[in-house]
Amino acid sequence: MLANCHFDTVANSPGASDNAVGCAVMLEVLHSLANLSTPLKHGVVFVFNGAEENMLQGSHGFITQHPWANQIRAFINLDSAGVGGKEMMFQAGPNSPWLVQAYVHAAKHPFASVVAQEIFQSGMIPSDTDFRIYSHFGKIPGIDLAFIENGFIYHTKYDTPDRILTDSIQRAGDNILAILKHLMMSKELGNFSEAHPGQMVFFDLLGMVMVAYPARIGTIINYVTAVATFLYLFIKCCYTGNIETHLDSAETTLANAETIHASAEPSQTSCVDQGDCVDGETTLTGAETLDDAEIIQASPDPPPTLWNGLVNCSRRACCYLVKLVLATLLLIISWIITGLTVYIIALVVSLMGRSMFWYSNLYAGIFLYGSAATGMMVLIHTVAKNLYYRIHFIYLVRSTKGLLASLGTVFTVFLLLVFCGLFFPYTADPSAPRPKRVFIQHITSTIHDLDGQVESKDSGLLINSEDFTDMQHITPLIPEINNTVRRESCHVRPFCFWPWFVSVRNNWYIPAAEVFPKSPVEFQLLSKENTKWGTVKMTFEVKGPSHMSFYFETHRGAFLASWSFANEMHPFYENRHLSISYSHGIDAPVWNFSIEIQPPRKDDPSGPEEMVSVAFNSYYYFGEDQRTVQLDNMLERFPKWAFVSSWASIYQMYRY
C-alpha cells in the first residue's frame, strides 16, 4: 500500500489544512501501524512529498523514478480543498470495486459520493490531485480523500492550525488507519487477478453507513422503476376510477417518478433532493381533489399550457393514449433538463488549482467556494429550478391572487435589499472570514527584436480577480483600479507579453516603476545550428529563481520538430502556443534545454522574418525579491477583507 500527502503550500498561505494536517494524520497513522502487535499481510509506504502545488511533481517523481514504486498495488491520498471539516472520499478506482468495498467495510465515519466522482472525473472541473498521477503514470488504483469545509478560506492566509478542530483530525485518522489495516490484510492487494473490474455506485447515509452496489445494478433499478411507472400510467388510462381509492399507489408511483427524474444517467445514484420531496408532498395533497386527468397536470414536469386542452377532454381511450404519449415525451425532456442541471452544478464550482463538491439529502449539491462561484451559473440554476419544478403548483391553490401577491412581495423586498448592498459578500471577521481573493504581480516585460536589441520595455502592476465580482468592490476604495485599465484576453504574441501565473480572462494593469531584482535572470542562447535533417536546433541556458516558465510560439508555417523535454512527440506539440513550467527547490540550478524547429517549406519573398518567439517568465514567490516599494504601497490600500497574494515577476521575449 501507498499512503500519500504533501507538505508544500501555495505562496502566501500557511497551508495548515492544505496539507500540513494531512501529513500530521499520516505520521500518526504510521506511528500506530508501527506499534501494532499483530503482523500485517502486506507492507505500506508513506510518501511525504514537497512538490504537489507545483503541478504534482512530487508524486510524479516517486511513481516514475523511485525503486519502491514497482511494489505499489494501491494507494490512499489525503489532500484538502477547504479548511477542516470532514474528509470526503470523492474518487475511488479506476475500475476497482474492491477499493470501494474496503472503504464501505472499514471506514468508521463514512462520507462519500459517487456523484462527486463522476463530475470530478468528467473533465469539466479545472482541478487535479496526486490521485491522477498515481493512477495515470503508476497504473495503480486508489482512494482520494480531501477536507472540504470552509472552501472560501482555502489557499489564503486564514488556513491556520487554529481553524482545524481536533475532532476533524481524529476522524480522518480513524478512517485512514482502519482502511489501511483492512487493505493490508486483503487478498485483493496481493492478487489483482481475483479482483473483478467495474464501476460502483456509492454514497453514505447521514455519515452513519455506506451504500454501495455495482453500476449495472443501478441501471437495472432505474429501468425497472421506469417500466413500473409507465405500466401504472397505462393501467390508470385504461381503467378510470375515483382517485381517492388509489391514493396509496399514486403516492408510490409519483415517488418513483421523482426518483427517475433525479437521475441524470442510468449509472448514477437515483435519489431525491429536499426540494423535490416538498414538491411531491404538495402534488399528493392536491391530487385528492383532482380527477385522473389532472394528476399528471399537477406533477412538476409538464408545463400546464400543454394540458389545458386535455383536462376537459372526455374519458375516451384515445384521449388517455394521447396523454400517455405526451407524458412520455415530457419525461424524456425532463431527463435532458436534469442532465443540464447537473452540468450547471458542476460549473458553479470552479477554482484555479482545486475544486470539490459537497452533497446533502441524497442528491448532488454543492460545496460552494464563496469566492470562486460563478454568479451567472448560480442564478441560472436557481431560476431554472424554481420555474421548472415549482411554478406549476400555483395552479393547485384556490386563489392565485394571494399567492402571487405574496411571492411578488418577497421578491421585491429581497431585490431591494440586494441593491441596497445589505448582503455584502466579504468580511474580515477573524472568527468567520470571507475574503476576496486578488492576485497582484509587479512585472517588467522586455521585448527583443531579431538582432537581440531591446525593442520595448514596460512595467506595471498586473491585477487579477479570483471571483466573479471582479473589482467592483475594490474600485470605490482604490479608484485607479477601474474599467479604463482593464485588459481583456488577447491573442498576440506569447501570452500577451505578460508573465501570467495562470491565464485568466480579465486583467487590470496599472503602470509602475521597473522591477530590479537582486538576483536577476540570466539568459543565453548557447548555440543555433542547422541539422542534417533540415531543422534548426537552438540550445538555451537560463539561470533564475526557483519558479520559471517558458513560452513558445512558431510563425510563418514553422513548427516544433522536437525538444529536450521529452523523447516522444505528442499531438499537442503541433499547437503553435506551448508552455513549460519549471519548478525547483530554494536554490535552482542552471536550466539547460534545446528545441528543434522545422522552418517554413517556402522562403518568404518579403525577406527573412522571425520563425519562432520564445519568452521566459521568472516568478519571485518568496525571498527578498518578492516585494517592491510600489507593490507594498498598493497592498496597503486594499481593505482588510481582501486577501491579496503578490509577488514580482520578470517577462523576457526573444525572436529568432
Helix content: 25-40%
Total DSSP E strands = 19
Based on secondary structure, the structural category is alpha+beta
Mean pLDDT figure: 78
Shape: globular
User: pLDDT below 50 for ≥5 consecutive residues: which ranges?
Assistant: 254-317, 346-374
> Quick one: biggest sheet?
8 strands, mixed
Name the beta content range. 15-25%
Strand order of the main beta sheet, please? 10-11-9-8-19-18-14-16
Quickly count the helices: 16
Radius of gyration, whole Å: 30 Å
Distance between the termini: 50 Å
Number of domains: 3
Q: What's this entry about, in short?
A:
It is found in: Endoplasmic reticulum membrane. The chain has 656 residues and is an alpha+beta fold.
Give your account of this protein's structure:
- Residues 320-390 form the Endoplasmic reticulum metallopeptidase 1/1-A TM domain.
- The chain has three domains: 2-207, Zn peptidases (Aminopeptidase, 3-Layer(aba) Sandwich); 218-419, no CATH class; 430-656, no CATH class.
- The chain is of the alpha+beta class and 656 residues long.
- The protein has an eight-stranded mixed β-sheet with strand order 10-11-9-8-19-18-14-16, covered by helices on one side. It has a five-stranded mixed β-sheet with strand order 2-1-3-5-4, sandwiched between helices.
- Strand 12 (522-530) and strand 13 form a beta hairpin.
- The longest helix is centred in the middle third of the chain and has 32 residues, at 317-348.
- The protein contains 16 helices and 19 strands.
